[in-house]
User: Fold this.
Amino acid sequence: MDFSTSARPARHAGTLAASHRHTPACRWAAPLLCIAALSVLALPSRAEQPDTLQAGLSEQVRALALEASRRATPGIARVEVSVGQLNPRLRLAPCQRVEPYLPNGTVLWGKARIGLRCTQGPSAWNVYLPITVSAWGKAWVATVPLSAGTEINAADLAQAEVDLAESNAKVIGDAQSAIGRTLARSLNAGQAVRETDLKARQWFSAGDEVKVLARGSGFSVAGMGQALGHGLEGQSVRVRIESGRVVTGMPVGERQVELPL
Assistant:
């Protein structure tokens, strides 16, 4: 748990020694029983949590996270926030007013955190409370368990509601973009298929003759060239065209490269 320098775990230096001096039974008790007794006496006390860190504050945290999440993901049908617990080892100064806030750079997606700061009390402190944001929506999922290396076909996919925020990787938006692709890792039945689960297509190999396309508003130009690298989906590749000039484009199909305009 992250916490500010004003919110530190309690120190118990000297507790064991003091307990030993004031435990006469240890002079004659069996050694193992004596050690057990001293261990209990040396345990840190339960964290003193601020009085307001109860249901009311949890609801404030949940409401803040829900509102911010919905603004950040307007297309998500359902968002849920689960509020975690502070580190039980924290000892915080008494506080009459605790204010939840969004730390700078917070991304409310999956595992995240909300800041809590004391704005009215004898000692200012700042801690971070873990939360989990779930964003539910439709996605293409595996209908059966699929092992790594499987080539996906239409029967392997179906639509279902899943927690999109379970991973930072994007789910596939179109089943056709996955059909014929090979899985890079295994999937369980009901698990969403994400872009990182699929191996990139290879449209051609280095040295292959490829068609070079340039498209614009109202025009299209095509020529031939030789690929200087493997044509992997989503990765740019260099091509030597008929004039001898080397250009860079994106593989878009079987032995096809599209040039940016």
Notes: The longest strand covers residues 126-142. Helices lie at 15-21, 31-42, 55-72. Residues 137-197 form a domain with the Type Iii Antifreeze Protein Isoform Hplc 12 fold (CATH 3.90.1210).
